[in-house]
Amino acid sequence: MQAVDLLLINAIVVTMDAAGTVWQNGAVAIRERNIVAVGPTSEIATVYHANETVDCGGCAIIPGLINGHCHVPMSLLRGLVADVQLDVWLHGYMFPVESRFVDEEFVYTGTQLSCAEMLRGGTTCFVDMYFFEDEVARAADEAGIRAICGQTVMRFPTPDAASYDEGLDRARGFIHSWQEHERITPTIAPHAPYTCTDEIYQAAVQLAREYDVPLVTHLAETGLELKESLENVHLSPVGYAERVGAFDIPAIAAHCVHTDERDWAILRSHGVGAVPCPSSNLKLASGVAPYAGLVKAGVSVGLGTDGPASNDDQDMWNEIHLAALLPKGLSNDPTLMPAKQALALATSSGAKAIHMEQLIGSLEPGKRADIAVVALHHLHTTPQYHYNPDGIYSQLVYAAHNADVRHTLVDGRFLLRDGVLLTMDAVQVRRNAQAIADNINGFLSAREVNLLDKIVAIGGVKQDEIFEVQAKAKLVDEALVMAMLNRAEVRIDKQSERTQYDTYFSFVNPDRGRVRYREDHRHDPGARLDPKYTLTLTVPAAERDQYPHAILLSRARYTAPADRSLRFYREYFAPEQITEVEKQRRRWRITYRSEEFAVNLDRLINQADPGPFLEIKARTWSERDAAYKAKLIGELLEQCGVFDDQLIRYEYVDLARA
Amino acid sequence: MQAVDLLLINAIVVTMDAAGTVWQNGAVAIRERNIVAVGPTSEIATVYHANETVDCGGCAIIPGLINGHCHVPMSLLRGLVADVQLDVWLHGYMFPVESRFVDEEFVYTGTQLSCAEMLRGGTTCFVDMYFFEDEVARAADEAGIRAICGQTVMRFPTPDAASYDEGLDRARGFIHSWQEHERITPTIAPHAPYTCTDEIYQAAVQLAREYDVPLVTHLAETGLELKESLENVHLSPVGYAERVGAFDIPAIAAHCVHTDERDWAILRSHGVGAVPCPSSNLKLASGVAPYAGLVKAGVSVGLGTDGPASNDDQDMWNEIHLAALLPKGLSNDPTLMPAKQALALATSSGAKAIHMEQLIGSLEPGKRADIAVVALHHLHTTPQYHYNPDGIYSQLVYAAHNADVRHTLVDGRFLLRDGVLLTMDAVQVRRNAQAIADNINGFLSAREVNLLDKIVAIGGVKQDEIFEVQAKAKLVDEALVMAMLNRAEVRIDKQSERTQYDTYFSFVNPDRGRVRYREDHRHDPGARLDPKYTLTLTVPAAERDQYPHAILLSRARYTAPADRSLRFYREYFAPEQITEVEKQRRRWRITYRSEEFAVNLDRLINQADPGPFLEIKARTWSERDAAYKAKLIGELLEQCGVFDDQLIRYEYVDLARA
Predict the structure, then answer these.
(1) CA–CA separation, B293 vs A598, rounded Å?
(2) Quick check: B19 contacting A, CB < 8 Å?
(3) What pLDDT score does B540 carry?
(4) Is the peptide bond before B383 cis (omega within 30 degrees of 0)?
(5) A565 CB within 8 Å of a chain B CB
(6) Whole-angstrom distance, CA of residue A402 vs CA of residue A420
(7) What separation in angstroms does the CA of A561 have from each of A532, A535, A570, B33, B420?
(8) Residue A540: pLDDT band by 50, 70, 90 thresholds?
(9) Does B282 contact A328 at a Cβ distance shorter than 8 Å?
């Protein structure tokens, strides 16, 4: 009898070795952190004597699952926002929240939550890419899980580096300090071709080569990335990565959704691991990776969950399930990606994809004892068919769930036992995570209600606060307006003609204010040709009718250049009502009694009452000044022959809605 | 205070009512089988006094999920076979197994297993289509779940009806005997246009109208179905169903994968419910239903799991998740099918699709108390964001799992409480299910090893058992063969020339025998034009060399017309080796000394040694007769100038493999 530390016996042992060995009543013998033997229980139990023997009857023993691509700290952002376009997701939520909240504590806490979740579901190894990656490494190390931790570098400022030079320095320091660790492989992760430069990739390759660690990067996630890459560098993202030298060392390329035969040949010839993320690729509408094509082309393919902010779970079972189903459903061929091959993506093939096939990915003597034990005695895994030895793959891939995992071991050590986490206090982990989320929630709650905060959040807002004094009259005599403008006391400073397309976003609670998206086309001779887009927030005038002549006072008016699409703002502000107002405007900027005013003569398009309407407006910082300007506006109105009963108190948008 | 039976309090109540009301700390009051009130806990707890109050803190209360299409007894066939083409799945496995094993006990037991699984995951209502549907109804009734049970009718013989007339009678009897049941709606389910006739649909409509029950049918599941429908009746399956009158009454159309705008207009105008089955449609490579298009067109859309033999679970959470992800991933638009809409497919919209929106689908006073209570305190549902009231949909759809369901109620009655089934003994249900599966497993185990059984299983085999006596010689002198054929003692009965393309399926264990798929083209004048396809199983000759002249004796030879494709057989037999042999054959059927022989002169194509080869064969039932014929073959060989050292002992296929 040979002595070992641990025997797992009486289970269906799915080795995922090259021969596809399955032991119907099998056992695994473990000494220290390694697998010593795998075989029939009857044989193993005779040869080995263990300190501890665990009966795994009714279970399957499989290699621990490998999450080939993730951003584990983002578990704290799970459920933050969903079902919006990528730009809204990124610029409206992820970037503003990450820039405010991502720090060492965030990263450590988020990693703990993710490790807990992954161990709960039988994942024993992950490949990460995020900021403050030393905190990812620390939390992963404490959890006992295996990880490749990639310190992100990109050309933009990040939460942990003001420039990419700083990012590269940080990566070097991180790799250097973790280089001796057995379970944690520190590395550098140039984010993606579209966020990096040639220099970043080259420096990253040099660093990774120096420390003999694999390079982690995103490649070909979206159709847009492919399109722009072809336009800009006349190469696919994969082709670009090859050219820049990223594949001269072992590399892990996340996503590879928009790749073709030529890309696959490049990936295969350099031994690059391709790691699509089925759920995330679907949820962010990136597409469906060519799983079967990649596998057929001989590329080492893994699977990842991607960040939990776009998934929203870190459930490799889900990813395996999708990787098995999608190729069938989209090809009209149900034999594509059989269950065994799908499971390999998260085990044996996944290990190759992350360049760790010597250590993990299958249950074979000499490999690390990274193991998941999956209970199969549930309703949803009943009945069991044994006539076909490969039936176990089908059961694991199509029927079993994350929650069926009973034990998870890394390096021969139980990290999850009978569903209980041994290296972490799940309650405390959840509590810490929720505490950070509560802060973010507070920030977003305020921002979501406060339209100004939402505008500020996406940047570019003109934060000057302006009172607007305004009078508006209906059906004016244009000749009288012209006469007023021609008076000696009135100096015309500027004159223009425009078509303005205004879209108003309104809310059931009017106190939230109203956002206007304006597309302004000038068509007076010599004017700018390009339309001007502005975003304006107005909060309702609290002091209507305090001024003579029904003059309106708007408080808190904010403008910003609208450099995104109307669609972006519509999804971002999620208004309860949308109103469109189109008008032809003749505008005069005038000076009257040393004060500046704007005079607008407007004709509405496609409205029951098209006008013309007269508007006279002035802006000021001072409330006292506002009263004075209101008086002057009254004088100008009189000169236009407009009397109080002609003044109207609503905005065009209200007219349009009536 | 008003008296009620049950209060569920302190949960996030997701009503799925038309206004999309969500109570962050809400309660549901239940009296008898109905919901009496839904609102803030503070309010409900003040107004209602309950016999029992259940604190659902940390949970969401949602309407019980509706599985709009399934074949619940097929849970017993879960995992039976996967990753094969539909025809192999159907003709190789489902039909042979169903025809042998589906009876009342099978249906009752399978339904119990499915009800247990569905209740475990918060499904409170299902729409079924199977055989012996009265047993589905009985098991569902006992489980306490709500169901629409459709007795299948099709033009082929089924396990419960030798003809469709018998099927219609059975359906009528079934509906009649269950018509008064409150929770179980018995109905008729004409299987699909391609398995029914106009008469079946018309009779089904008449029956359903008579008893005021909805019609259940499959429509437009595969591209092939659509193509054949257009060819055969010049209408899409949906158009056909309309024409035949199936939509003159409330109808539930499963799948609707291959439908377009015109179909959607038909479905909407008749109020037909469309019920795609995301997992099954992917797994069987049927495709992806146009979820967003159907919804946008105003069709009432539900979701189903389909049969567990093609899914393999009955997990509506999975289906909701897929219904939310697929439209995004395949459209490049991540705003399609937002979480709230996806959840509606299994609740409010799903209820409309099955014509039960008056009773179920939302948590509103007056509706039945069909409820799922989902725990949200798991790692994978941490953290929670409340700033956006709709965030709960995202959490439920993208993060929560089947296993998170804590309580399930139907008609106000707990059927699952704290994860424990109250109306069924889960252990006993699993045991009964496994017992039936063990029988099927035994049948398949025997069949999979025994190639003959596999051939018999797919039908058409010529079961005559034949001894074949055969001698084969290499490099013969053709002139001597001709001289033999011209001898007076030899009568030529038939003569032909052919090209034969043979594909041999071999196995590591030679005792299993060898299967040959032959495509035989005649090209002598006047012969049949169409090639002939045959499937032949030969078991190795045990008694080689017992006869003089190295004559071979094959035992157990079986032939069947090969009416399926080579691809079908390749997947069905899953050989370990495939060998192709192509040859030109001149064949004479002769009579010599009153015995019949076949003489073949063969030239192999694309082989190192193309021949020609001479074969002389005879068949017999008798071993004694075989010896006699071997002697006669020896005489014929001599006349051809063939001596023993020219005789060869291998088959062409062995030559090809050498």
Answers:
(1) 48
(2) no
(3) 66
(4) yes
(5) no
(6) 14
(7) 8, 6, 16, 57, 58
(8) low
(9) yes
Cβ of B539 under 8 Å from any chain A Cβ? no
Beta bridge partner(s), residue B269:
none
CA distance A595 to A589: 11
From the list B78, B318, B328, the residue facing A285 with the nearest CB is B328
User: What predicted TM-score, i.e. pTM, was given to this entire model?
Assistant: 0.81
| CATH of region A65-360+419-443, choose from 3.90.1150.10, 3.40.50.150, 3.20.20.140, 3.60.20.30 | 3.20.20.140
Tokens for A656, please give them. 């349009």
Q: Going by C-beta distance under 8 Å and a sequence separation of 6 or more, which residues neighbour residue A565?
A: none
* Interface-testing mutation among B295, B379, B431, with chain A (most A C-beta atoms within 10 A): B379
Sole residue written with tokens 């009876």: B103
Is A80's CB within 8 Å of B385's CB?
yes
- Counted across chains A and B, CB pairs separated by less than 8 A come out at 233
Angle between helices A451-458 and A566-573 (to 10 degrees): 130
Q: What is the DSSP letter of B453?
A: H
Q: ipTM score here?
A: 0.80
Whole-angstrom distance, CA of residue B423 vs CA of residue A434: 37
Choose which CATH entry (3.40.50.10490, 2.40.480.10, 3.40.50.720, 2.40.320.10) describes domain A460-657.
2.40.320.10
As a whole number of Å, the end-to-end CA separation of chain A is: 90
Across the range A630-652, mean pLDDT stands at 85
Q: Determine the Cα–Cα distance for residues B399 and A82; give it in Å rounded to an integer.
A: 12
| Separation between Cα atoms, residue B426 and residue B198, nearest integer Å | 43
Q: How far apart are CA A323 and CA A342, in angstroms?
A: 6
Nearest to A334 among B285, B311, B399 (CB): B285
Alpha carbons B272 and A275: distance in angstroms, whole number:
42
Which CATH superfamily does the domain covering A1-63+361-418 fall into? Answer: Urease, subunit C, domain 1 (2.30.40.10)
Q: For the sheet containing A300-301, what is the strand order? A: A215-219, A251-255, A273-275, A300-301
Residue stretches of chain B with pLDDT short of 50: 463-465, 544-545, 658
Residues 6+ apart with CB under 8 A from A364: A15, A17, A35, A38
Burial class (CB in 10 A: 0-12, 13-18, 19+), A183: buried
Interface of B with A in 357-386 (CB under 8 A): 377, 379-380, 382-386
Res. A527 pLDDT band, cuts 50 70 90: confident
Whether chain A has a CB inside 8 Å of the CB on B538: the answer is no
Mark yes or no for CB contact A383/B117 under 8 Å. no
B79–A279: do the CB atoms touch at under 8 Å?
no
Higher-confidence position of B258 and A527: B258
Q: Which chain A residues are closer than 8 Å to B312 by Cβ?
A: 394-395, 398-399
In the chain, the amino acid numbered B356 is M
Tell me, what's the pLDDT at B198? 94
Q: Report which residue type is found at A266.
A: I
Select the residue of A385, A426, A445 nearest B387 (Cβ to Cβ): A445
From CA B293, how far away is CA A340, in angstroms rounded? 34
Mutate to test the interface with A, among B74, B380, B571 (most CBs of A within 10 A): B380
> Mean pLDDT throughout A40-58?
96
Helix boundaries (H) for B184-300: 198-211, 223-233, 237-243, 261-269, 278-283, 291-296
The b/e string for B460-472 (b: 16+ C-beta within 10 A; e otherwise) is ebeeeeebbbbbb
Partner A, chain B 217-246, Cβ-Cβ below 8 Å: 223
Segment B69-93, tens digit of pLDDT: 999 999 999 999 888 877 778 778 8
Residue whose pair of structure tokens reads 């070795």 in the numeric block: A17
Residue spans of the domains in chain B: they are 1-63+361-418, 65-360+419-443, 460-657
